[in-house]
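Task 17 of the worksheet. Students: predict the tertiary structure of the chain below and write it out as structure tokens. Keep your answer in the requested format; marks are given for formatting as well as content.
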Amino acid sequence: MNASLGTAGVALALAASVGGVLTVVVAQAKGRPALLRQVPSFVGLAALGAVLAVVAMQRALITRDFSVEFVAENGSRATSLPFTISTMWSALEGSILLWGLVLVGYLAAVTWKFRDRLTDPLVAWALLAMFVVTTFFFGLMAGPANPFRTVPNPPADGPGPNPLLQDHLLMAFHPPMLYLGYVGFTVPFAFAIGALVTGRVGEGWLVETRRWTLFAWGFLTVGIVLGAWWSYEVLGWGGYWAWDPVENASLLPWLTGTAYLHSVMVQERRGMLRVWNLSLLCATFALTILGTFITRSGVLDSVHAFSESTIGPLLLGFFALVVVVTLGLIFWRGDTLRAPGRIDSPVSREGAFLANNVLFTGFAFVVLFGTVFPLLAEALNDRRVSVGVPYFNRMSGPIGLMLLFLMAIAPALPWRKASVETLSQRLLWPAWFGTGTVVACVVAGVRGLVPLVAFGMGAFAAAAAIRQVVLATRRNGWRGLVGRTNGGMVVHLGVVMIAIGLAASGSFAEQTEARLAPGESRTVHGHEVAFTSFTESDRDPTRTIREAEMEVDGRALAPRLQRFPNGSQEIGKPAVRYGVGDTVYLALLEGPRADGTILVRIIVQPLVAWLWAGGALMLVGTLLSAFPGRRRRGTEPTSAPAGRADRPDAPEADGGGTAGAAGAPDREPVGAP
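Model answer:
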């Protein structure tokens, strides 16, 4: 029954998606806009099919219906309920099903949002693009990634999901957050396609999709941070980011999406960078497809790749189609995409955003090259190679420091042109704060050029962001915290926290492996780690646990080894004690020998908690950015023609920018939308 319901759901969603495609195509080709009013019906049917399929899969997992092949291969009677639910996205077919559900959710939300403008050609073409993407993914589910295949002789039990995927509750949230981010970029991509097809390449579609892009970026940010947190608390090596291909696949669209969120402000303000912004949006969406290919095809080795499949060529073909169509449309609309303005001075807000974009895209290229180089080398030379962590660290470190520097100075720059006097006034005390931080670190005994520069730049950027928020709140009260610029400053503070956490934990971690007898202790970086006793337990029906009872500075911690039913080996589960200053990480490597000693890995890392706190602050900043600022007008692009009383680059009450004209007052850029 579950298989039949699920298959019916997939078939319904696929048929509705194809129907949506045909309806929009006929309406546009035959000039019959009235047909577009049928679109919500197709969207509703697609949503009904997707929900039906997901409910059927969850019911099959929870009721242990091993006649469904996916459940037989990934489910287990011994798996607890939360991880039974998350089993759906632990393997290929279920994860594609989740992708389809999220995609249809976005499609329904867009249709509802623009329900009064369905006959608008730009909206129609955007919906067509979304229907095409929906058709592709439900087509995968109807074919090679069918999650509802049945087995003729169902087993009595299944192996359950990979043990690493049923050992931490973050597994229930991290992949859905990533998918909300990945799939969310479909919306701005679809509107970009609509703008190119209709020739309405001004700033109107940017305004319409601003929050969609922001929320997709926010979800992806949270998903990446949660993934790093999961990696830290599960994998047992004491790290959170290994430049793994799957990790890189999530970072790539985040980098291009971040570049877009900055450069789009230049287009809204000045009407420039149209080709660049369209290219960034389309590249971001294409990279989500490439990331799915890397994650789910099994072509690259990864600790995060828990499944292999034959859908790789299809995903690669869809990626190529997206690239070809996008480039073709941009080439076709080349004349209308010419920017009406130009950058007056490199020392300006738009100049800083352009430099920021160069760095972000360079960063993305570095990550992309390091990720796909093994594939290229194998294809060209039939030789397997790998790109190690040192390559990524050497290349990304300088870029990260330069981005911190830009984060510090860009908020202080006015639009069009900045004077030395203005900059010195606005950057004086942030620069002093950054310098003072470096001096204080040196006095405190911190050594090392890279961490000192990172701390100094981080303090510089943090002070600039705080100054901006303080000025905004003094002028506008609580509204000084909301809006794109002010919320963006909160995001910057989160980024600074993460940057400092990365620099500190990567530069000053202390690690040792100790063999300890009961009652014996070891002091690591000022922390006394003592082994008290060892226990074995089968009280948890989902696993057998062997646990070391330990104390860190008198507080109990219990790293363990676990064996799951049908598991071939024991899986370690580290124990972590977070602190504001440093974190103590214990990983049990060996259970007790005949003499009662155990082998434990002890790692003390400074400021690891700052990574997760920084991620939370970025989420808060994203939400604040979604609220309109004081002068935002949702119906009018801010790059309206100059010369109007309300022109965007005119002096603003809340300091959203400074006029470029000579003699215009150079007010502080605070609180711009």
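Marker's comment: The chain has a mean pLDDT of 87. The chain is about 55% helix and 10% strand.
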